[in-house]
């Protein structure tokens, strides 16, 4: 065989996950919880500072655009990975890119409420029996 095939007749072109993230395997910022809700944000207005150096323009990849399209309504990180059929690690890196450019908002899951103590549960049961 004359080399490695970059596509499969049945599946079409194959893009390795590390190519989507430019070799990055994790996002160095916040940790994206599986159930954290992601929602697309309005792009920020560029700040005009006469002393600031011009920032290098950032061109989002098609996967970034797909995430923004999906996140017009809040979706969890797990749902995004499932809908895009991408590995969770890749989605987390892509979400990190979007977060760095203020294109998404992350809504953390509410902390799990602590269970009431055994004493409170017994009082509730006693109260129900008294009815």
Protein traits:
131 residues; alpha+beta; 3-stranded antiparallel sheet; two-stranded antiparallel ribbon; 5 strands; elongated
Total number of β-strand segments? 5
Distance between the termini: 82 Å
Helical content stands at: 25-40%
Oligomer description? single chain
How much of the sequence lies in strands comes to 5-15%
Counting helices, strands and paired strands, the structural category is alpha+beta
Number of helices: 5
Could you walk me through the main structural features you see in this protein, from its secondary elements to its overall organization?
By secondary structure, the protein is of the alpha+beta class. The protein has helices spanning 17-20, 62-70, 77-84, 88-100, 118-130, and strands at residues 7-8, 12-13, 37-40, 75-76, 104-107. The strands form two sheets. The protein has a three-stranded antiparallel beta sheet. Strands 1-2 form a two-stranded antiparallel ribbon. Helix 3 crosses helix 4 (88-100). The longest helix is centred in the last third of the chain and has 13 residues, at 88-100. The radius of gyration is 23 Å and the shape is elongated.
């Amino acid at each position: 065989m004359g080399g490695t095939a970059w596509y499969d007749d049945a599946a079409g072109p194959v893009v390795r996950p590390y190519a989507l993230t430019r070799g990055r395997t994790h996002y160095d910022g916040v940790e994206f919880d599986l159930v954290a809700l992601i929602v697309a944000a309005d792009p920020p207005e560029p700040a005009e500072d006469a002393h600031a150096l011009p920032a290098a323009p950032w061109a989002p990849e098609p996967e970034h655009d797909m995430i923004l399209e999906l996140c017009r309504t809040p979706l969890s990180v797990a749902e995004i990975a499932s809908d895009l059929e991408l590995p969770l690690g890749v989605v987390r890196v892509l979400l990190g890119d979007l977060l760095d450019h203020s294109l998404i908002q992350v809504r953390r899951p509410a902390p799990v409420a602590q269970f009431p103590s055994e004493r409170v549960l017994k009082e509730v049961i006693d109260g129900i029996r008294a009815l």
